[in-house]
Amino acid sequence: MEWVLLLVVGIVAGTLGSLVGLGGGIVVVPALIYLGTIIPSFGNISPQVAVGTSLIVVIFTGLSSTLAYMKYKTVDYKSGLLFFIGSGPGGIVGAFVNKAMDVQTFSLYFGIFMIFISIILMVRNKIKPMKTSETRYHYKRSFTNEEGVESYYGFNPLIALPISFLVGFISGLFGVGGGSLMVPAMILLFMFPPHIAVATSMFMIFLSAITSSIAHIGLGNVNWLLTLVLVPGAWVGAILGAKINTKLKGNTVINLLRIILIILGIRLIFQGLN
């Protein structure tokens, strides 16, 4: 039964991660830490093992989501690769910083991070692109939607690379995709259409999770048995989340996720302070 529960965790993580561009680690990491305390067969799951295992799952979530979004032609590959120049090294640095964190410290900072993400999800639909001249963009892109309406967006790499480095650092540190920061930045600062922002974020998450995972594998932070159970569920969930993203606003799901994140975040903060 415990392995079925783990499969469900993978499905939920993949669906929510793909739906809102988070990557799914925000579900997997706290779930693994909690399940490790109540299910003896899982063993004692340290924050480092939870993060390393989560990042392997995020690779498959990101890949599955990217393949699904490819069908809808909403992935901006060139922008995603440019963002990866920053997020790749950031993920490696985050993995080594994670190594020095004990359970209390990790719980405290991860709890704060979860509450921060819930706030981002609360205001994300209210985010409006900054009014700026297209001539200020060093890298310009365009997108034509299904109705034939063309929109323009772009970014300055000198601004985008530090942001993507921070996203990668958070990915390596907490085992999450980092899309909670990247998607709002794409929409607010660079005028990405929302669907393009989520799809491109998942592509970047896929790439940065690979580099972060390599670092965690080298540090021995991956439980491969748990990974083998989580990955199939995450793969299916990511495809489902991509379909929901293109058809529905998903406000009900996002509202539910916000509440869960706040509750879990407060619980982790109390654990970290005790």
Overview of this protein structure:
The chain has 274 residues and is mostly helical. The chain has one domain. The protein has 10 helices and 2 strands; from the N terminus they run αααααββααααα. It has a two-stranded antiparallel sheet. The model has no long low-confidence stretch (mean pLDDT 83).
Total domain modules: 1
User: Main β-sheet, in a few words?
Assistant: 2 strands, antiparallel
pLDDT < 50 runs, ≥5 residues: none
Output the strand order for the largest sheet.
1-2
Tell me, rounded to a whole number, the average pLDDT: 83
Determine the oligomeric state from the structure. single chain
Number of helices: 10
The general outline is: globular
Total number of strands: 2
Pfam families: TauE (PF01925)
InterPro entries: TM_pro_TauE-like (IPR002781), TSUP/Inactive_protease-like (IPR051598)
Protein name: Probable membrane transporter protein
Keywords: Cell membrane, Membrane, Transmembrane, Transmembrane helix
Structural topology:
Blueprint lengths: L1 H19 L4 H14 L8 H25 L5 H22 L4 H21 L15 E6 L5 E6 L1 H18 L4 H10 L5 H25 L5 H24 L3 H23 L1
Antiparallel strand pairs: 1-2
Helix pairs in contact: 1-2, 1-3, 1-9, 2-3, 3-8, 3-9, 4-6, 4-8, 5-10, 7-8
Short description:
The protein is built from ten helices and two strands. The chain has one domain (2-273). Strand 1 and strand 2 form a beta hairpin.
Task: Write out key terms for the chains shown.
2 strands, 274 residues, TSUP/Inactive_protease-like, mainly alpha, single chain
